[in-house]
Amino acid sequence: MAALRAANARLREVIEARDAQLAAAGAALAAAEARIAALGDRVAELERRLGKDSGTSSKPPSSDSPYQKKPRDRSLRGRSGRSRGKQPGAESSTLRQVADPDEIVVCAPAACGRCGADLAGAAVTSAQKLQEFEIVPPPPPKVTEYQVQARACGRCGAVSAGQAPARITGRAQYGPEAHAQAANLASAHYVPVSRAAQLMGEMTGLRVSAGWMAGVRHKAAGKLEPFMDHVRGLLRQAGVLYADETPARAAGLMEYVHVACTGYLTALHTGGRSAADIDAGVLGGYTGSSSVTATPATAISPRRCTPGAAPTTCAISATCTPSTPTGRSGPGPWPTCSSTPTPPRPPPAPPASPGSQESR
Fold first, then answer.
1. b/e 295-325 (16+ beta carbons within 10 angstroms → b)
2. Partner of 193 for a Cys bridge, out of 144, 181, 213, 297, CB 3.0 to 4.6 A?
């Protein structure tokens, strides 16, 4: 019995030692797992930082790696089927020689290439014309002084003053050609006023200010008002008119740019989205058919049509009750006038386009 008890005691000691070893191994394994998890988070954070570039973060382009090529943007535009380069029948802009150059420089040989004889008075056997077109510095601006004189009459002694041209109103001012070139830069070519003023000075020699360049746009708009009245009158006579709107900033505020156009005429004006603002352009008093591109985000508010008129001859002049809410898309159903008992049958749906089109 004593021997068995001694053996049992030794076995218990061995078991307790193994339990202690297992507990230590378990603690080490838990610590290793925690360390692995922390290292995994660290690796993920480093990979996220390395994956950033100037296109996915606020990092400057200079920090991008020169050894990594950026993926090319895949365009949704399909092939047109036309060959590359200039198309057949397109207008050419080839630089051609002129018959009367401003300066002729003779490049003659001084001596014979074989024997070295002087060729000063030798006969010319052939000549090749090579022309170079170069920009010359702008000339100084032309300054015209108008001296408004006052003269005393030798008979009665009255003093009479002369009259300058009507456009001359200041002591020093720019002429009509300067205004035309400034409007061409700032309005026709959409050059910012500061850069347009700089270009004006470099190309013409007139050192104008950015404020004067900005004022030229308003002057040009005033000059074009009679022409735009004529354009709006022609648009109101069109049988079919396209109308649309888009948000934009005007005079420091968010406004809507309303457009009414055909294939040859276009009129724009800014305003809100109310019926009065929309009708302030061409649509007020229009009696033809209006086609509108509408999406859920930019659909034009319910418009108005002539009571009792069909949609194809609907005028934008009287209250109209839409059969679906604003922001709808698709070919129908169509708006119906308040005096029409039932909506007319819609015409066939137009071809698919980026925005849904509705005839109003």
1. eeeebbeebbbbeebebeebbbbeebeeeee
2. 213
